[in-house]
Write a structure and sequence with these properties.
By secondary structure, the protein is mostly helical. It is built from 8 helices and no strands. Helix 1 runs parallel beside helix 3 and helix 2 packs across helix 3.
Length: about 150
């Protein structure tokens, strides 16, 4: 059985019952015309559908009595929020996050201060090999000066 036949086989039951989009029906019909195995399967499914349609089935007289006890009303869903139901966990998680942020703020390295003289000396050394470095360095010096 080819990969396309396997794909068609999954769709044949619905197709035999008349379900499916027009595009899907056209795809299946085109395949069935060229594939005798899928054509036989489709015909068998159609025959089964015809036999089932001719049958008159009546439910067992005690069917409703067997179903009714299982139809208990479901309890209403809880109206409390997730946080209200898990207040201890959520409070602990919030405290842990706050402690982690506070610890990070205390121990985080401070913004380094720039020594403008060192920047100018580095620029002078680099400008000999990079002709456009002077404009970039002047922009950097302006930014550093504005921050201080």
């Amino acid at each position: 059985m080819s990969e396309e036949c396997e794909r068609i086989a999954e769709l044949l039951v619905d197709h035999a019952a008349g379900a499916g989009s027009p595009r899907q029906k056209a795809f299946i019909n085109k395949h069935v015309e060229a594939c005798p195995i899928c054509a036989r399967e489709l015909q068998a499914l159609r025959n089964t559908n015809e036999l089932l349609a001719k049958m008159e089935l009546e439910p067992a007289p005690d069917l409703w009595d067997a179903i009714r006890p299982n139809l208990q009303p479901r309890p209403a869903p809880s109206r409390t929020s997730w946080i209200a139901r898990h207040w201890l966990k959520s409070t602990a998680a919030t405290a842990a996050v706050a402690a982690a942020i506070a610890a990070w703020m205390i121990t985080a390295p401070k913004t380094p201060t720039f020594d403008q003289q060192a920047v100018l000396m580095n620029h002078a050394a680099m400008s000999w090999s990079t002709p456009f470095a002077d404009k970039a360095a002047l922009g950097l010096i302006e930014v550093i000066g504005a921050e201080q």
